[in-house]
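Continuing from the previous page of notes. For each protein in this section, the sequence appears first, followed by its structure tokens. Read the first protein now.
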Amino acid sequence: MGFRFFKSKSIAKGLRIGISKRGLSANIGGRGHSISLGSQGVYLNLSIPGTGISYRTKLKGPGSGASSKSGGAAREMPKGVQVILREDGTYEYSDQSGEPIRDQTLVRRISALPEVKAKKEELSAQYRQDQQDKAKQLNSQMDSFVNIASLSPKVRRSLSQDTSSKDDPETIMRGIDECIDSMTLPVEIAVSYELRGSELWVDLDLPELEDLPDKEYVTLASGALRQKNRTQEALRGDYAKCVYGVSIFVAASLFDSSPGIERIVVSGRTQRRDREGRICDEYIISVKYTRPAFETTDLTSIDPEAFFLSFENRCLTTKTKLFKAIRPFDPHEG
């Protein structure tokens, strides 16, 4: 066995000179982080005393200005270090036992490593996507209010070959009652009706503006999820789509319940306080829907307001979609 020779001498605090057969070497730093200079090049040494976590990478080759990146030295995650992305979008590092790394000097050094930066970018991309999906899911309740018209059934031209039942009032009303009982919507409504020949007059107790969610979830640039209040203008716009959508859904369902119904007049009311503070009914929409348009239109992709306004109607709204009280159509009008 050959003899090995190594001698170390401390020159100043944090600086140690070593002498061996390969020549002189120097180590600058202390426990946890240091830089070694010797005949084999310049190395960065990182460790957490007492944990077994260590990391060593070549910064410069012997007698060369080439960095480890260009010199082809393998880059790996620091041994035992885990990068953790927390729920609030911030990062922390833990050792091999799962304990968080608290040494801020070491944290800064770990954060600057290319391998750690790449891992953080990967985690950030996944985090932003997860948060966007979560926001979409949380906001789906609002979407269900706005897209009620898309739930409308396809109105068929005929439900039976027996034309004798088409004009039978009892058969028509039985179909209407069954239709109303089976209606399923994300909002609460009340439906009453009067059948006058082939014309159906429908009275709707509409959902209230206060029934709509007044908050929404958004993702920030960092990917973090935040809840914010919706503006009154946005709420009124979505409420208008809800009101138009409810009238379209109810009309389509009732048209589909019987081929004997040729026209449906829908009038919708809501509850508001008068000047004396008493709650009273106010009608805000009244529209005369005709069967042919429902038979030929794909209601799953319409603009509810535009479709509503294409029929004879009574409806007054401000520029900010605030409904004003109207006088509904009356079956006893001349």
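Done with the first. The second protein uses the same format. Note its length before scrolling.
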Amino acid sequence: MSGDAVGGDVPGGGAVSGAGTAHPPVAVVGAGPVGLTAALVLARAGVPVTLLEAREELATESRASTFHPATLDLLDELGVAAALRRRGRTVDRIQWRDLDGGVHAELDYALLAGHTGHPYRLHVEQARLTPLLLAELTATGLADVRFGAAVTGATGTGAGVRLRTEDAAGRTTVTHHPYVLAADGARSRLRALAGLPGTAEVYPDYALRVVTRTPLDELVPGLAALAYVRDPRGSYSVLGMAIAGPTTAPVS
């Protein structure tokens, strides 16, 4: 969102910051992996950033849990891939099975060697990544990170965007930015303020997720850390995840 992408209205009042400075910060709304990555890339390039997150802290609930080679290459450039790998489980092959235990196909990630610096996928919760990105962002010294700052208004000024945020106590703050990046999720408040159509869709089906510490790879000989069981009698997926300590437990 820039000065030409205008949405919503910001009444007067609140404290105004960012306006009139030599280098007003770019605003990034949303402290998930996308927002933190965008903010970090900007700060590393010498661009001051204001990161606004409606929550009081980073999200901890289970969300994405798989990182693919290309993503790991990007995270390596940001300096967090090695630390993330230590927190997760490296997966070097994928299997397709049936309910009788037969393996119909297996793909070895070693085939990607030479095409990527990370010829494997990593199973680790998204919540393990965001603290690493936040630490790197803070270390740049060019980021103003504000938790509990919900964006409630946005207006184009011709030279940028004026944002209105509100905290849990109802106090408002108005800031001015040359650009605003919307990284606040599928039900983005910023998209709504800018009059852009939403992208969220309701899935027609539901999936049951079962988490167990039972070592399935010991009970099922040869079971890969990622296995897709596809059978006319029933289908499911098995993902091996890292847990505290040296052992691992798959999730099915």
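What the second structure shows: DSSP finds six helices and 16 strands in the chain. Confidence is low (pLDDT under 50) at residues 1-21, 244-252. We return to this in next week's lecture.
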